């Protein structure tokens, strides 16, 4: 019988480089939405609450603009997660390791541009 194994994503696995120490990171509150956030999930900030959630380019509440990348696995299935680390600036990331949700090619290009405006540079082939 074959044994199937899968490996979870590790914290910060998407990073190619970042600023010294923890200068690239922020600590935020992730919105509870019956899911587990994974390292590499692209996040946006809801303007009214200041909480972070998955980027949704069809929204108009602030969550349409990518502002950060989730750093570590966070279980938000039943409650908001406080003190969640995210990459918020000054980093190079492996684009193939990011989760853009259901976004298509042109939308991903816009999300990559949003991240670049925060000095989070998406690289391919790293």
Write up what this structure looks like.
This protein is mainly β and 126 residues long. The chain has a single domain, classed as Virus Head Decoration Protein, Chain: A, CATH 2.40.300.10. The chain is built from 1 helix and 10 strands. The strands form 3 sheets. It has a 5-stranded antiparallel sheet. Strands 1-9-10 form a 3-stranded mixed sheet. The protein has a two-stranded antiparallel sheet with strand order 3-7. β9, α1 (105-116) and β10 form a beta-alpha-beta unit. The longest helix is centred in the last third of the chain and has 12 residues, at 105-116. The chain is globular and about 50 Å long. The protein starts with 14 loop residues before the first strand and ends with a strand.
Uncertain regions: pLDDT < 50 for 5+ in a row? none
What structural class should be given to the helix and strand makeup? mainly beta
Order of helices and strands: EEEEEEEEEHE
Largest sheet: 5 strands, antiparallel
Total strands:
10
Distance between the termini: 35 Å
Number of helical regions: 1
Strand order of the largest sheet: 2-8-6-4-5
The name CATH uses for the topology is Virus Head Decoration Protein, Chain: A
Helix proportion range: under 10%
Strand content: 25-35%
Briefly, what CATH class? Mainly Beta
- CATH architect. name: Beta Barrel
Rg from Cα: 14 Å
| The CATH fourth-level homologous superfamily | Head decoration protein D
Shape from CA axes? globular
Number of domains: 1
Mean pLDDT: 93
């Amino acid at each position: 019988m074959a044994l199937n194994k899968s490996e979870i994503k590790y914290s910060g696995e998407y990073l190619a480089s970042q600023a010294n120490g923890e200068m690239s990171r922020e600590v935020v509150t992730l919105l509870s939405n019956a899911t587990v956030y994974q390292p590499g999930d692209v996040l946006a900030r809801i303007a009214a609450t200041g909480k972070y959630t998955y980027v949704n380019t069809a929204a108009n509440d602030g969550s349409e603009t990518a502002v950060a990348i989730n750093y570590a696995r966070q279980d938000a299935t039943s409650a908001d997660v406080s003190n969640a680390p995210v990459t918020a600036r000054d980093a190079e990331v492996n684009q193939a390791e990011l989760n853009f949700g259901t976004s298509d090619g042109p939308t991903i290009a816009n999300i990559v541009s949003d991240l670049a405006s925060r000095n989070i540079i998406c690289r391919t082939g790293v």
